[in-house]
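Entry 14. Ran structure prediction on the chain below.
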Amino acid sequence: MIDKKHMVPTKLLWVDLEMTGLTPSKDVILEIAVEITDFDFKPLASFEARIQQPRQLVADLMKDNAFWDAYPENRDDFLDKLDSAKTSQQVEQELVALVRTQFGDEPAILAGNSIHADRGFIEYHWPELFSLLHYRVLDVTAWKVVMQGKYGIEYTKKETHRAFDDIHESIEELQFYLKNTNM
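Output, structure tokens:
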């Protein structure tokens, strides 16, 4: 058994979820993107999927939601493609297989922006995948707080709010901070 506390990670599991809202027990996952990288941020494997959800449920959860009102093209795109998506169970099984293949016995370190929100949805909706995660995370948002507060350094995001775009932007943002602190 791996000692998670003293384990030195070799890879990162970058994840971004698009959800109907921020409450795992009420809201649902619409889309997931995954990028597995080494610590030089070289891509090792990728995964992307939309999750099938009942159309009326998604529409109801998006209704009167300021976030979705601000991104109507994304809202409409998700609603239009719900029927062609994979089931949540299919997506979880594919992700479990990917993590097991890429990480072996090493617990996967979840990485991304405000990754605690994604982690909460994974724990609630995909417990088998959650069981493969390390308790530690790499949250780029924590870097943002330090870089803005201590150094006055800002990274400007494109704000596309599509899972795969957001992952790549999170990786670029962390690289930007590392470069600007001479690490």
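The chain has one domain: 12-180. Will compare against last week's run tomorrow.
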